[in-house]
Amino acid sequence: MSFPSPQHDHGPCVVHALQVAEEECRRRGARLTDIRRRVLELVWRSHAPIGAYALLEALGKAAPPTVYRALDFLLAHGLIHRIEKLNAFVGCPHPGHAHPGQFLLCRQCGAAAELNDESIEQAVRRAAEKTGFLVAGLVVEAEGLCPACRKDAV
Amino acid sequence: MSFPSPQHDHGPCVVHALQVAEEECRRRGARLTDIRRRVLELVWRSHAPIGAYALLEALGKAAPPTVYRALDFLLAHGLIHRIEKLNAFVGCPHPGHAHPGQFLLCRQCGAAAELNDESIEQAVRRAAEKTGFLVAGLVVEAEGLCPACRKDAV
DNA sequence: TTGCGGAACGTTATAATATAACATTTAGCC
DNA sequence: GGCTAAATGTTATATTATAACGTTCCGCAA
Ligand SMILES: [Zn+2]
Ligand SMILES: [Zn+2]
Ligand SMILES: [Zn+2]
Ligand SMILES: [Zn+2]
């Protein structure tokens, strides 16, 4: 919910995310195969949202469909989110209940933070209702400066 | 601000948009060249957001950079918006003051409506502030059913 | 008017992102 | 073990976007 400090030790976050993912997949009867786990780990290891071809390269010998299929699986089970603005992917810090993500993207350091603010979704839903539109999915992506980069910029 | 009825006569909308664009460009000292005007007209003629390569085809004999340059110009001067989710473009119904768009995108008929709801932006700004993040740009894209398609679906 | 200089455009090639189609392997189940 | 469906491998190609460089056009000023 808060912005990840750039110098925090990210290792434990990755380990924790993988544990949660194992659990969540078990609960759902979904198979977190080796490739899928490796992609998820790579996504988490990256501090910033990471693109499919960067993942592909990190995986070593693999073709595009391999990584896209893994990403599709992870998206379908709510373990990652896609950032539309960046054509990139980021780990979900609290999978288990389906939700659209709301993201803060630092234009300086690339870091991303996920919000899940009820009032944002409500504001959209209310405004949409006024026009008679029924909201089914929602993309919210704010670009700007994270706390650390904001300080640096003075 | 409200959803465009699918059977409304779109011709006048296009004509009006082009007039406003002429005016706005004059005001800004920007050149609305033939290509740029044709691209803007094509964007407006399309009921739904339209992609760069569809515009390219409609233009006839032209190469990608031609249409992308025109789109860049139109974006820079606030005459169109880009829909990130769709990699597509839509005319702005009220250019003249820079603003991020907030969009309602019908998954059935493809129609798009632009909102400019203060409360949405405020909700995002407030939630971002809590984390110390400074918002500079904002993408809001809701997917769902427009009033007409909602009725059809019962 | 003519020539200058920058903006706009043309053209070719290529980068970056994503999917189609089909063969092969693997994992779970009886 | 043998069956089946899911997962993965493999090749080709679609889709979206930009780089690089040459040419043309347009406003402006000598
Ligand atoms: Zn999430
Ligand atoms: Zn930052
Ligand atoms: Zn607008
Ligand atoms: Zn519709």
Main sheet of chain A, how many strands, which sense, barrel? 3 strands, mixed
CATH architecture of chain A: Orthogonal Bundle
Shape of chain A: globular
Q: What is the CATH homologous superfamily assignment of chain A?
A: Winged helix-like DNA-binding domain superfamily/Winged helix DNA-binding domain
Bound molecules: zinc ion
Domain count of chain A, please report it: 1
Greatest interface by residues involved: A-B, 38 and 38 residues
Q: What's the count of strands of chain A?
A: 5
What is the H-and-E element order of chain A? HHHHEEEEHEH
Give Rg of chain A in angstroms. 16 Å
- The poorly predicted ranges of chain A are none
Count of helical segments of chain A? Answer: 6
Beta-strand content of chain A? 15-25%
The quaternary state of the protein chains shown equals homodimer
Distance between the termini of chain A: 24 Å
User: Helix fraction of chain A?
Assistant: 40-55%
Q: What is the CATH domain class of chain A? A: Mainly Alpha
Question: Roughly what is the average pLDDT of chain A, rounded to an integer?
Answer: 94
User: Structural class per helix/strand content of chain A?
Assistant: alpha+beta
- CATH level-3 fold name of chain A: Arc Repressor Mutant, subunit A
Largest beta sheet: strand ordering of chain A: 4-3-5
